[in-house]
Design goal:
With 488 residues, the chain is an alpha+beta fold. The protein is 41% helix and 9% strand. It has 17 helices and seven strands. Strands 4-3-2-1-7-6-5 form a seven-stranded antiparallel sheet. The longest helix has 30 residues.
């Protein structure tokens, strides 16, 4: 009997629909999860991270088995991870860490100012873990940058520098890892990450690329709406961090594109709702969170070409079948990005000796549309001020070329962010979520520009599983306006 069947027999209503608030049932289930009584380690997180009241009760009871009193935050997180595998969808894993943060604060109420402060540090450690121990290229985050990125987020004040240094050194010296099931330990690394989705492993693909960081994974919502679909030709112009794509990998390829939720799927064959995505389709998937689409004005070899710059500063060109189709894709991508992109993790850009872009979470925003608009407006005001201050102190001509490059990199970043938030603010002022459900003809008064989407849902949602892990590296030098690279 599988663990899900066992659970259904014990709490037939509780887990399936979350309507029961039976504390005793929650205690029984929590105890069995903790003791791994006919459950695997990989089963635990999905029962703690569901978005219903019973699952919250189970999580609260489960965390009571952990006494973090007197332990540092990093020690507590490592202790917590020894009990289970933090696997599952991004939203589920994030909820588990929220429960952890609440329990740690309960056990140590005088260590950190609030539960939000604990959760912020927990997120920061997860991000740092990926930055220091991931397989991404580029320089690693320094302790000074880690401290600077967390300025002012502890109830409006700074965390203790000694605390942040201790957390940084802990993660640097020992990678955060969680427990795995015995059968997973026996597999080779490739088997653990590259299994194909077949009849016996129907959920494997959704785990591919899911490593130590639930906040940078491409979010997967099987019930997400499909906002646009159609044929597009794609050309990769720049890889992660704006690094120029090698010439042999820049060729044009045609795909059937489906913008579903915050993910742009690029499939080799025309979309069919009943057909699962292949591993190649998933490999080509692009998250549009914090992205910006615009006309590729500097590319003249083909007509109807749009440029998409992603959160991790990849640059992709797409050719549509007509000017109207090109504009439609620009509008819809930017609208999805404006409505659903979660606020970035704080980064004190001006205080860092070496410029480093902040990390942008792939999770969907939890803000209301009004709060989302205020958040975008606040970021736009902040970026505009920083750009003005930055340009008021240009580097002396006598300084080293490296310092001039740093200045240009930061200038390009701030200019791009200013444009991106201007587009997002304009979209939300036009209606945001309402525009996602309107047809092009209904979205009257919208200009045909990259900042004015007129969206309508196309066809029914895809029900395939998502893989892919996108981490927003921060430090490679991208294409800059001052060193303009003609797209070839």
């Amino acid at each position: 009997m599988g663990s899900t069947e066992i659970l259904d027999k014990e709490t037939p209503e509780s887990l399936s629909n979350g309507t029961s608030s039976n504390v005793e049932a929650a205690k029984r289930l929590a105890k069995r999860l903790y003791q791994l009584d006919r459950f695997k380690r990989s089963d635990v997180a999905k029962h703690l991270g569901k978005n219903n009241e019973f699952s919250k009760l189970v999580a609260e009871e489960y965390l009571k088995f952990f006494d973090f009193t007197g332990m540092t935050l990093d020690q507590s997180l490592r202790y917590f991870f020894k009990a289970f595998s933090l696997v599952g969808e991004t939203q589920e894993r994030e909820r588990v860490l929220v429960h952890f943060s609440n329990r740690y604060f309960y056990c140590n109420p005088d260590t950190i100012a609030s539960q939000d402060g604990v959760h912020c540090l927990t997120c920061a450690m997860m991000l740092l873990n990926t930055d220091l121990h991931g397989h991404n290229i580029g320089k690693k985050m320094t302790c000074q940058e880690f401290i600077a990125n967390l300025q002012g987020v502890n109830e409006g004040v700074d965390f203790s520098k000694d605390l942040l240094k201790a957390l940084y050194n802990s993660i640097k010296n020992e990678k955060l890892e969680w427990a795995v099931d015995d059968e997973e330990k026996k597999k080779s690394p490739s088997e653990g990450t590259d299994e194909k989705a077949n009849g016996t492993h129907p959920k494997t693909i959704s785990r591919i690329g899911s490593t130590t960081n639930p906040f940078l994974d491409i979010p997967h919502d099987p019930n997400a709406a499909v906002y646009k679909s159609g044929f597009l030709a794609r050309k990769i112009h720049a890889d992660m961090d704006g690094k120029k794509t090698p010439r042999g990998k820049r060729g044009w390829k045609t795909f059937y594109a489906v913008l579903k939720g915050t993910v742009l799927y690029l499939q080799k064959d025309e979309y069919k709702p009943e057909k699962a995505l292949s591993e190649e389709d998933l490999k080509n998937a692009v998250s549009v969170h914090h992205a910006l689409a615009s006309r590729a004005t500097d590319y003249e070899k083909k007509p109807n070409v749009l440029k998409l710059k992603t959160a991790d500063w990849r640059v992709l060109l797409f050719q549509a079948q007509s000017p109207e189709e090109m504009q439609g894709w620009i509008n819809k991508i930017n609208c999805v990005a404006a409505v659903f992109s979660a606020p970035p993790f704080p980064a004190a850009i001006g205080s860092q000796k070496r410029f480093s872009r902040p990390l942008l979470p792939a999770t969907t925003t939890k803000l209301s549309q009004e709060e989302q608009l205020k958040s975008h407006e606040s970021k736009l005001k902040q970026i505009t001020t920083e750009l003005a201050e930055h340009r008021s102190y240009p580097p002396d001509k006598k300084v080293k070329a490296k310092e001039i490059d740093e200045y240009k990199l930061k200038d390009h970043y701030l200019e791009f962010e200013k444009t991106r938030y201007e587009v997002y603010v304009s979209i939300l002022k036009e209606g945001g979520r309402e525009l996602l459900s309107n047809s092009d003809s209904e979205a009257t008064g919208l200009k045909k520009s990259h900042s004015s989407p007129s969206l309508n849902p196309d066809s029914s949602p895809v029900t395939a599983k998502v893989k892919r892990n996108v981490s927003e590296r921060k430090d490679h030098r991208p294409e800059t306006p001052s060193i303009k690279q003609k797209v070839t």
